[in-house]
Request: fold
Amino acid sequence: MAYRWRGLSFAAPEGRDESHLLFVDAAEPPRWNFDLRVEALPKGGLDAYVAAQAAPEGVVRDGRSARTVAGQPALVLSQHLDSGGSTLIQRQAFVAHGERVIIATMTARAGARATAEAALERWMSSLAFEEESP
Reply:
């Protein structure tokens, strides 16, 4: 498969995992990262899928809200992790689309919370599906 990016075209390495798309803040060190992936949505639906997602050790869930994103049902989780004197915040948007779920995860240092939350909101408001749901 040929990839196109910034005026380049190239073949990616064999054995790659194409299930994630990752964006990282340009600051050094990065203040946030944004991960996007698509998975099969099990028969139980979006609520069951999100409920089955176990929070990693030490992560505290702060909230869960239902909303509509790109005309599709979505759930948004808010959580944080306090570790070694610093806090990481995370918001995850799970968007059902036919037989798949789109998962957008924004993780940020506490000082970049507003920037990260605005970026996730911008992603949710800009999401569009270029194909019918499978």
User: Anything to note?
Assistant: The chain has two helices and eight strands. The radius of gyration is 16 Å.
